[in-house]
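@channel sequence for tomorrow's demo:
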Amino acid sequence: MRNAKIIAGFFGVLGMCTVAQRVASQATGQAPARSKRIAILTSTVLDGKGGMLHDRRIRVEGSVIAAIEGKAVSEGAPVDYDLRGLTVMPGWIDAHAHITWNFGKDGKNAGMGGTTQEDAYQSASNAWVTLMAGFTTVQSPGAANDIPLRDAIAKGILAGPRILTAVEPLFGQGGKTGTAEEIRAFVRKQKAMGADVIKIFASQSIRQGGGMTLSQEQLSAACDEAKKQGLRTLVHAYKDAVRAATLAGCTEIEHGTLATDDDLKLMAEKGTYLDPQAGLIIENYLLYKEQYIGTPGYTAEGFAAMEKILPMNHELVQHATKTPGLKIVFGTDAVAGAHGRNAEEFIDRVRDGGVDPMTAMVSANSLGAEALGMGDQIGTIAPGLQADIIALDGDPLKDITAVRRVVFVMKGGVVYKNVSRGAIPVYAGVQP
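structure tokens (generated this afternoon):
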């Protein structure tokens, strides 16, 4: 019954397609319909792999990049979008965003449990502002109401980032979680429900101490079964659970606070991805404290703990960055209040985590795509890949706050945003 309400709620907002198209038309000067051929003129392109291109003409045909031409070839050729003077790069990938989390009618955190049409409208809005902020792909760690939103966007009914979702996470509860075979059955159930990835809670919240909630045997069963089903695994893990998840062969560790240097080295050796959060998630909680406190999982004691955890997160990112070979992807853990402000995490990583700006960009481009198993489709400006292209008014390699000024967004060959330079105010806010 609950899933039926969720689906009904999302079908109730399909009329938003017309509204979204009207808004996109206002932002771009044209409806967001895919043109057969589009030519984009650029002066500076970050290719998504750490390289830089100058004075190139990008040709898009349908949904993919058809060619990248040098100045000699493109001289005098037709141009649809002149992005010279901007920094052009692949659309960003957020490896951890709770895209359907909202504040309810009472203004308080409703989490992922909203089932009304109003909740569906809010989720569609979350998707829109996330796309406008330059994120063309996001991965949700799981909510049943992700599915209709994901599918509506994929069909072109709603405008938003490409969504991958875990649907229903596996919550570690010690022995109550089930036997190894019961856990394997749970993983198979998620695949049947349409999951793109399996989310596993192997730790308590860090606000509650972060202790392990699954045994090594249970964790190994979950990650092994996911591999057999052709699915990746995201593991919510702190402290000892980081090593346990790495030894279990899981794909990616979420958060990782209080992992030791030896844990980080083991992750590098095993090729396990790390998705730490340098600031946005806790900053968002503190900003919207009144909306969260008193809702499930959010106590006064937990908020007091967050202020102590924030510098620990900075320290983790600093240590992780210095670990040779460790694959660090970009994820924000964006919840209600943070949608559309995902790029603030870049600023936190560079300013507080000591991450090199180009490395930060790559973490949300080719490396993020690789972690999703989509490196041959997105994350790089290259012929044959999806035409997910954004442009910033500024140079993030010199001024990381330029990530707040996204003035052009193309996803899959469709232009959703094209505003003039200087149109984005120089402050941290939801992108218009």
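heads up for whoever presents: Residues 90 and 159 are 18 Å apart (CA to CA).
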